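Example 382.
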Amino acid sequence: MNFELTETQLMIRDAARKFSREVVAPRARKTDREEIFPAEVYAQMGELGLLGVNVPEALGGAAAGVVSYALAVMEVSAACASTSVGMCVTNMVAELIVQFGTPEQQKKHVPRLTSGAAVAGAFALSEPHAGSDPGAGRTTAVKKDGRWVLNGTKQWITSGAYAGVVIVWARTSNEGNKGLSCFIVEKGTPGMTPGKHEDKMGLRGSNTVPLNFENCEVGDDALLGKLGDGFKLAMVALDGGRIGIASQACGVGRAAIEASVKYSKDRHAFGQQIGEFQALRFMMADMHTQQQAAELLTLRAATLKEKKTPFSREASMAKLFASEMSNRVCDKAVQIHGGYGYIDEFPVERYLRDARVQTIYEGTSEIQRIVIAREVIKAAAS
Ligand code: CAA
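Predicted structure in complex with acetoacetyl-coenzyme A:
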């Protein structure tokens, strides 16, 4: 096992760190408080290669691999998780089109995603009644006069009102999971309309909307992958997506620890820095250990994906552990800050609100446990 980062990985991490500290972090509080969708930041990220870190250069990506991607997400997330979630979904959408798209689809959509010209990518899988169980989706795609006609409602769509390229799952037959297919729908296609922006607890700069489809027509050239393979495409995308969310959790957790260490030096009580008290030191030791363990799990999953070896279980383990870690760590960070942790003068209240969704989206902790347990039992049986 090699724990050293390569030159490329260091270069991407350092570029993402510099950009995050200079551009993303200074606007993070306003992004959150005023619910500002970070479109301008995505345009700059496109120039740096951060919207297609694991996408071939020929399609406008950085071709820097999955570990570089995870490191870049950690850096952006330490500055602003509202910004990093859209970055994660855009990378996921671009990679899915690279993996399953025809050369025409790749050429048409991927450079627009990686450059930021499409603003962002969106992943329209969940529905109002079907989140953990996407195979129960009811949105339909019916072939009429040689065109696919989409009808239904998608829910919780990250960047849904802004994304230039949206991957939409729709039912093309009644065969459960095997009846789902995937379509690439461009912003502005008649019949696809974003609904009301959700007023969320955290990630308030990220745009989250339902997407309504009313007789939305697309051609055969919009079908991504084979007819009826939509469920599998979703699972493949989510395996990689979970590495992204694990990385986001690592970044937010790290930022909470850094803020806590700083505060514990600045704040005095009973005649000394509060960081001198063993109670705080033990908290910080546990926070740091758990955050580092989450980074190792995340980078291991990223390494396996990069080597093209199976990584579903590892991605779920990383996502489960890292998202639960970031919730614990951010909660402790608020505790260390006392009353100041509860107001927006310090960033830790935002970190805690942003961390909360990480155990929910891209598969709840309970779904990750299902995936992990199945794989463990399968391995023991073989
Ligand atoms: N890779 C490839 N294929 C896979 C796969 C994987 N990781 N996992 C399953 N499959 C295949 C199976 O092999 C099976 O194929 P066959 O029918 O040919 O045998 C098929 O898919 C069905 O698999 P399962 O029987 O395991 O399916 P299931 O209905 O039991 O569900 C599940 C499995 C893991 C619970 C799945 O439903 C799941 O992951 N649910 C969570 C969904 C989720 O994460 N949603 C997040 C929404 S997106 C989001 O949050 C994005 C955002 O904007 C931030």
